[in-house]
Each structure stands twice: as structure tokens, then as C-alpha cells.
Amino acid sequence: MTATDRVPRGRVTVELDDIQATVLRYRPEPYYGTHVMLHVENARTGREFLRDLAPHVDSAADWWQAREPWMAVALTYTGLAALGVPEESLRSFPDAFRAGMAARAPELRDSGVNDPDHWEPEFGSGAIHLAVSVFSDAEEKWRRTMDTARRHYEGRPGLKVVVTQDFGAQPGDLNPLGYRDSIGQPAIEGSGVEPLPGQAPAIKSGEFILGYPGEAGVPLPAPVPDVLGRNGTYVGLRKYQSRVGAFNRFLRAHAETEDERELLAAKLVGRWRSGAPLTLAPDKDDPELGADPVRNNDFTYATDPEGRQVPLGSHMRRMNPRDTEMAVLADVNIHRIIRRSTAFGAPYDPDALSPADDETPRGLYFIFLSAKAMATMEFLQQEWINNGNFMSLGEERDPNVGLQKAAATFTIPRAPVRRRIHEIETFNVLRGGEYFFLPSLSALRWLGEEH
User: Where is this region: Disordered (predicted)?
Assistant: First the structure.
């Protein structure tokens, strides 16, 4: 069952036929797929590739009924330049997108082990121009769709494969630290589906798709000409290596029994491993609740203002504070992102404890979409992930994706005395990242032409 199988259809006010499917289509469960990142050595070859591939890129029409695999195509700024996009159009993209994620490391608080100097060499170097991603709910269909994509890029002179990464197929669709993820996506006004319980109110479509009014009542600036910018969006991709050994050692150091370790793991994220939220299942996991998309996000924090059920500094509460009273006020709706994250490598191993287990190839491609993805991610990294002031938590950082300092702490509110856990570590280390532009289908065809 997908998250939209049991909700009523709503009014459509965006051009679904022109929007790439992955903007609105939820990641399937189970899921299989591949990210392929390419370098364009010849502009004409790159344009030919886009022209040939464009008919295979699905639109968001009837996105809630997805039962077949789909393909997504996105481009970096250096990729747009490599295709020969006119200078006027290139200048119309935001400065942060043009600079690239590596150059924005100070704004993203990517320092220390997360500094671009430590990234895998393909990322942040300007070598990645195009990304093609395939998502599927079945292995056979995934492989068939990948064969289609591969026929268009393999052996094509002037086009070079830089990165290939298969993803998904994790037992129970858990992420590398053992949690069910990608729960609680924002509802988008005019997308054709009414909000799920817990999503309302729907957020203006212009926050996620260029060419439509956002929460401020006007469209966000878009690339020119209109055919290039309208119905497109921006994508941020951050590749994390998950330090599973460090995570398991932390749980064992601060909890004596298996039940206590699972509760601590839930407090870090705000949900049990199954996806059941602590607000609705505060004492023990409820896998049936976690698997139910109509119930597993239907809550507020009105009865938990101090964070005794869901700690104020937990990952889930940081990334979407909902109705939490914050010390530093912010409009939650303008800081939401669509998430399409994908797990790769070895599955979570609860018995992995050694430092060597931290280097086992496994992790997460944290993929987020927004019409202002660069500004939103920089805000999140600066204010909600790597800072605690907005929740009156001082120097505390996100326990999941935060870059931890030495002797870092995590606070669990409780009566009569809060519990402060010391020596929390960086459990997900950044290994690379890029900003992409995800064009509309008409823009893909435009990019395939010579200008």
C-alpha cells in the first residue's frame, strides 16, 4: 500500500503532465533503483542524449497511482554549461546553485570530517553534469528500466559515466541505522491529492515547483526563458557514510537492556524503528502503526510541549517542529522539503560494534527537493541541524545528521530531572554532495535543442 491509496483525490492546479514524476511520486515500498551520474564531454552528444532519453522520463500525471518504475533526470550548473545553455539563462540561476554545494560548505556548516576536502573525488569537482535515477517497486522492473537507460548512455562518445550507485532492497526497507524513513512528506496544494492525516494544511505549490505562487503569494524567481524554469525545481543530494559501529556502541554505552537501547534509539529520531511515532506509541514500538500511512503521521506536539515523549532535539522534531513553541520563531511551512532519500550498501547490522564496521560501505543518499532547495538546506544546516538555540538547547545538534563536536550531548526531558547523554558522535559522515536542477519535461526537450 502506498501513502496515497486511502486518501481522497483533490483539485489539480499545477501542470502535472509537464512535471517530472519524482517531484510528487512517493518512493515505493519496497524500493529498488540506481543513480547514474554522467560527465558531458561534448555538448552535441549531451543534447542528443537528453533528446533520446526524454520520452522515457515519466510525468507526474496520476502520480498517486504509480505501479511502474520511473526515471528522473537532473543537471548541475556545470552540466547546463557543458550542454551549451545560453549565458543569459545560466546567469538566471541562483548564486548558490551556480557555485555548487562544495563551494557553499561554510554556509552549510560542512567542516571537519564533513569538509569537501574529505569527499569522494567525483563530488564537488565539477565532473558530475547529469544524474539519471531509476525508482521501482520490484527488482525485475528496475532492471528492465535500467537496461533502457543504459542503452542511451553506454558507449556514447562524448558521454562518460562518473558514478553508478544501486540503492534500496534493504530488509524491511530500513535505512542504514535500522529505521524506516521518508515518513511525513509535506502535502502540496493543487497536486491532486488531499492531505493525509497529520499533513494539513497543504503548502503552496510554489514552495516546491517553480512558476506557481509560494507561501508569500508570489512565485519564486525562476530561470529564463519560461520554458526552462516553469514546472522545474531544485534538488540537493548529500551522500552520507553511516557509522553503524559507532551508533551501536553509543546505544550500548548508554542503555543496559535491548528494550532500553530501542527506546534510546527512538528518542534520538522521534520514532521507533518501525516508523511508529513516540507521540502515539510512547512506551513501546507498534509496527502496525508504523506501517500505516494514514495513522503514522497523524499527531501534533500540543500535549508534549517540553519534549517528554519526543525530545525537542530529536531528528524528527528538528526537521519539522510542527506546533512546537520555538525560542527562535520561524515559519515551518517555508522550510519544508520533499525527501526522496535512498539507502545503499550493506543493511543495518545490530551486532556491528567495531571501528572497522564504521567503514563498511553503506549509507544514505539524502535527496531533497524544493523550489529554493539551496536556501532551505543552508537554513536547516545552520539553524535546526547544527544549532540548538531555536529549541533552547544551546550547542546541541541533530543526533542523526548533525556534525557533532567533542563531548557533545543529547538531552532527554523527563520528570523530575532531565537526562543528559554525553559523548554523542557523528553517526552519518558526509562523503559528497551536489546541487541539481530538475527540469520539466518541456524543459528537457528544450535542453536537447541547440541554442
Answer: 277-317
Q: Which of 11, 1, 22 is nearest to 194 (CA)?
A: 11
**Letter string b/e over residues 356-376, b meaning 16 or more CB atoms within 10 A of that residue's CB:** ebbebebbbbbbbbbbbbbbb
409 and 254 Cβ atoms separated by less than 8 Å: no
pLDDT single digits (tens) 408-440: 999 999 988 899 999 999 999 999 999 999 999
User: pLDDT of 32-82, one tens digit each?
Assistant: 999 999 999 999 999 999 999 999 999 999 998 877 899 999 999 999 999
pLDDT of residue 329 exceeding 90, the answer is no
Does residue 254 belong to any structural domain of this protein? Answer: yes
**Cα(316)–Cα(449) distance, rounded to whole angstroms?**
43
Does any domain span residue 4?
no
State whether 38 and 159 are in the same domain.
yes
User: Is residue 154 packed enough to be buried (19+ CB in 10 Å), middle (13-18) or exposed (0-12)?
Assistant: exposed
- 129 vs 127: CA distance, rounded Å: 6
Q: Same domain for 440 and 382?
A: no
Interacting residues of 65 by C-beta distance below 8 A, sequence separation 6+: none
> What is the β-pairing status of strands 362-370 and 342-345?
antiparallel
Contact predicate 300/323, CB 8 Å = yes
CB distance 108 to 85 below 8 Å = no
Is the same domain home to 71 and 217? yes
Mark whether 17 and 35 lie in a shared domain: yes
- Is residue 286 within 8 Å of residue 272, measured between CB atoms? yes
CB 34 within 8 A of CB 164: yes
In the numeric block, the cell 539507502 is attached to 343
Q: Do 147 and 35 share a domain, yes or no? A: yes
Task: Give pTM, 2 decimals.
Answer: 0.96
Range of the domain at 265: 241-433
Q: How far is CA 351 from CA 152, 177, 331, 358, in A?
A: 42, 12, 41, 12
Of 451 and 142, the structure prediction assigns the larger pLDDT to 142
Residue 353 within a domain: yes
Please indicate, yes or no, whether residues 195 and 257 belong to a single structural domain of this protein.
no
Domains: count for the chain:
2
User: Rounded CA gap, 181 and 277, in Å?
Assistant: 12
Strands 362-370 and 32-40, sheet pairing? unpaired
One domain, residues 91 and 231: yes
Rounded to 5 degrees, φ, ψ at 240 are -110, 135
Whether 201 and 78 map to the same domain: the answer is yes
